[in-house]
Specification:
Largest sheet: 6 strands, mixed
CATH architecture: 3-Layer(aba) Sandwich
Shape: globular
CATH class: Alpha Beta
Distance between the termini: 26 Å
Number of helices: 5
Helix content: 25-40%
CATH superfamily: NagB/RpiA/CoA transferase-like
Strand order of the largest sheet: 3-2-1-6-9-11
CATH topology: Rossmann fold
Low-confidence stretches: none
Length: 179
C-alpha cells in the first residue's frame, strides 16, 4: 500500500465514525489530566475541520486555565506559523478551508510548551499521517517541546509508512489512553 492509498483509506474510515463530539471530549479529558498539560503555559491547538478530532472543548479548558492559546496559520505553500487567538471571532477561513487566525503576528516557536497535532491516522510508534502538504512535519522538525497527536482509537494503524522527514510525536492521545 502506498502512503496516498493509506490516506484515502483512513479518510473514508474517519468519515464513517459516529459520535465524534463525544469521543473527542474523551480524548480531551485524557489530555487535561496529563502532567504535561498542567505544566504547559502555552498550547498550540488546531481548529477542527472535516471529521478530525474536535478541539473546541480542549480550547475552552485551556482558556479557563489561563493558558496562552495558539493556532497554526499557513503563510505560504510550505510554511505555517503559530498565532495567538482568544475567541472564535479571531478566525477566518484560510487555505484548504481550515479556519485560521486573522492576525499575522507569529508567536515564537521556542516559547510554545505543548503542540496538539491533527492527523488522518497515527501508529503506536507515534508517527502521524496527515494530508500530504507537510506543514506540521516542517514546523515540528526543529521543535523541542511536547507534541501530542489526537486520534480516534479506530484510526490507529500498524504503520503510517513514515518517511525520513516525518516527525515522531511525544504522545498519542485516544479515547482510552495516552501512549
Amino acid at each position: 500500500m502506498t502512503k496516498e492509498e493509506l490516506r484515502i483509506q483512513l479518510q473514508k474510515k474517519r468519515d464513517l465514525l459516529l459520535d465524534n463530539e463525544a469521543e473527542s471530549r474523551k480524548i480531551a479529558e485524557k489530555i487535561l489530566h496529563a502532567p504535561f498539560f498542567g505544566e504547559a503555559v502555552s498550547v498550540m491547538l488546531y481548529r477542527s475541520a472535516r471529521s478530525e478530532v474536535i478541539t473546541d472543548y480542549l480550547w475552552q479548558k485551556c482558556m479557563e486555565a489561563g493558558k496562552i492559546c495558539l493556532f497554526p496559520k499557513c503563510i505560504s505553500k510550505t510554511e505555517m506559523i503559530a498565532v495567538k487567538a482568544d475567541s472564535s471571532g479571531d478566525f477566518q477561513e484560510g487555505r484548504y478551508g481550515i479556519f485560521e487566525p486573522i492576525s499575522d503576528v507569529s508567536y515564537p516557536k521556542e516559547q510554545i510548551d505543548l503542540i496538539i497535532v491533527p492527523g488522518l491516522g497515527f501508529d503506536k510508534r507515534k508517527y502521524r499521517i496527515g494530508y500530504g502538504a507537510g506543514y506540521y512535519d516542517r514546523y515540528l522538525s526543529d521543535y523541542s517541546g511536547i507534541t501530542v497527536g489526537l486520534c480516534r482509537e479506530e484510526l490507529l494503524t500498524e504503520s503510517v509508512l513514515p518517511d525520513v522527514y516525518d516527525v515522531k510525536l511525544s504522545f498519542i492521545a485516544t479515547q482510552k489512553e495516552i501512549f
